[in-house]
Amino acid sequence: MDTKDELLSLLIPELEKKGVRILQRDMGTPEIGGSDLLALQEGKLLLVGLFPQPEEVLICQLLNGYDWARQNLPNLSLLSKELDPSQLPGVVLVVSQLPHRIRTALSYLPLKDLRIYEYFLSDEGRMLLKEVEREAPSRLEVRKWRQEAPLSSEELKELMDLHFGTSQKLRAAEVRGKRLP
Amino acid sequence: MGRGLEDFSHLFVSQDAKAKSSLARREVCLFSPFGEIEKPFLVTNLALALTQKGRRVGILEADLQFPPVSHLLDPFHAQLKPLRVLLPPTSSLLQGIAEMGRQSEIVLIDAPPFSSPLSQIILKLVGEAIVILPVDLLGRIGSYQLIKSIHLFREEVRIGVVIAKVCTAQEAKANFEGMKAVAGRHLKIDLRDYGFLLNDLHISQSIKEGRSPLSSIVPSRLKRAILNIADLILEGEVDNNFCEKFELALREEELGYQG
Question: Fewer C-beta neighbours within 10 Å, C or N terminus of chain B?
């Protein structure tokens, strides 16, 4: 059993638990990768793509596949009477260790229903599947320097004195034509 | 997606300067409290002034606020190409920084606002920071707050100021002494004097025209002020291999992003 078959054997029961019914396996649509599934959940078409080694091209493939599914919704509705062609398709991505860059890029896509599953090997060598948040977590915490370095009232007073005591006096002296020290 | 950002990466090293391998390597990081126009202006013109003085200079452009440093370099200095730093770092950016570290004696850093993550990575490594201090009330308070933040963030950073928007050298001197006294009293730091920039219409004109005052043969107060700041920078030679450290720090960042 290769990685994709093993993944499918894990994924299908996981999806079925959530009320997803597989419509067709091995669609062979070149746009969204070789092994993908068409599934149905509450009348909505689900496009399932497996990407064992995700690269940035995944985003193009995903959009091409989505476009293909949207264009062909009326035809695809012939596969099942339950399929409602007025509902926009959903996308399920199955990937291994999604790089931060791709995850961030995916979070910008205006797809309403995009689910991402990551798979990994457990300590015992078993393949495990986990649904991940679509939003990429922020990597760096930004310090709020204005809050962290507040000025004391003495510092503020001295800065005010400095302002009104030096520049203003010097400028006033210059305007009055006095020689500066 | 994401990779397209590396198109920004260019290495800037002045070609005509003589190699002076015996000179110490150093970096100067320029900050301004509210993204004042003087900062990119100064980064660009200091690079030109230091190049004219025979130093090999690199520019790291880490602030994306308008105007970018690269827009201020006129066609006469086409060889001066700043390296634009963005997060997450690309491989070409890392290569560019490594190359800049090998070839430049002085690296000028156009620092982003203090609150940005990139600014904090830079501050962890940089030896010297110059804060632009405009003498209007808000600018003065903002600059002091910036000085305080930098000092609290990392005490080892030597902080200097360039007084901006002044009318006379005396005014600049009085303002520097005043700020030095306040910083000395409250923060226990010894501010360095890096000269001043006058409240000069030529600065905005120069930016508008994309032409440096240093390109002109006509002597001007602005030109003298820039050369003076360059001289003051050259006085304090500190050996600090910033680019090497910066490249390593960004590599760690990149790994973090991939993880």
Answer: C
pLDDT in tens, A145-176: 445 678 888 888 888 888 888 666 666 666 55
Helix axes A153-162, B169-187, angle to 10 degrees: 170
- Nearest by CB to A170, which of B145, B174, B256? B174
Smallest Cα distance from A146 to chain B, Å: 8
How many interface pairs between A and B have CB atoms less than 8 angstroms apart?
Answer: 98
pTM of the shown model? 0.64
Q: What would the pLDDT profile of B149-191 be if each residue is shown by its tens digit?
A: 999 988 989 999 999 998 888 889 999 999 999 999 999 999 9
CB–CB contact A145 B114 (8 Å): yes
Task: State how far residue B174 is from chain A, nearest Cα, in angstroms.
Answer: 7
Phi, psi torsion values for B33, nearest 5 degrees: -65, -40
**Taking CB atoms and an 8 Å cutoff, what residues of chain A touch B259?**
100
Return the percent helix, strand and coil in chain B, to nearest 5: 50, 15, 35
Q: Which two tokens stand for residue B151?
A: 């000092």
Place of tokens 């200079």: B57
Residue B168 to residue A174, Cβ atoms within 8 A: yes
User: B186-216, pLDDT tens digit by residue?
Assistant: 999 999 999 999 887 888 888 777 778 887 7
Instruction: Work out the minimum CA distance from B245 to partner chain A, whole angstroms.
Output: 19
